[in-house]
Write a structure and sequence with these properties.
With 135 residues, the chain is α+β, with helices and mostly antiparallel strands. It is built from 5 helices and 9 strands. The longest helix is centred in the C-terminal third of the chain and has 12 residues, at 116-127. It is globular, with a radius of gyration of 14 Å.
């Protein structure tokens, strides 16, 4: 898994030309309950750090930032009826969209993976005074 810590989104490389993206568990905890989640339509080109979709929270609508640039090839249709999947299974059935990456190797440098993830997430959580054991 690759994480864009600043935007609290993740990317899982499923194949050289397919990446699944979603919101991190910490991102969900920071945001609160999601009432609606909608990805950009299939065929839409997105840029790393720019909107790949929106989530409706209790008091706001927030843009979900893309961890990587690419073209949306699938939006998670299950979220239309069951947006709670984003909370319950943020790394499983709660994914937001699938992309055909445009610059995976070049953009990978902006993402965190492996042993560095825990420290990066803990640092981000401290900004919001959240204990990682509960995120």
């Amino acid at each position: 898994m690759l994480y864009h810590v600043e935007h609290q989104v993740w990317a899982r490389v499923d194949a050289p030309d397919l990446v699944t993206v979603g919101i991190t568990a910490l991102g969900i905890r920071l945001s609160g309950e999601v009432y609606m989640c909608r990805a950009k339509p299939v065929g839409t080109a997105v840029e790393q750090g720019r909107s790949i979709g929106v989530v409706e929270l209790a008091k706001s609508i927030v843009s979900v930032k893309a961890p990587l640039s690419g073209t949306v090839v699938e939006a998670n249709a299950a979220l239309a009826q069951r947006p709670e999947l984003v909370h319950r299974e943020p790394y499983g059935d709660g994914w937001i969209a699938r992309l055909r990456p445009a610059a995976l190797e070049a953009e990978r440098a902006a993402l965190v993976s492996g042993p560095a993830v825990l420290a990066a997430m803990a640092g981000h959580a401290r900004l919001y005074r959240i204990e990682m054991g509960h995120a």
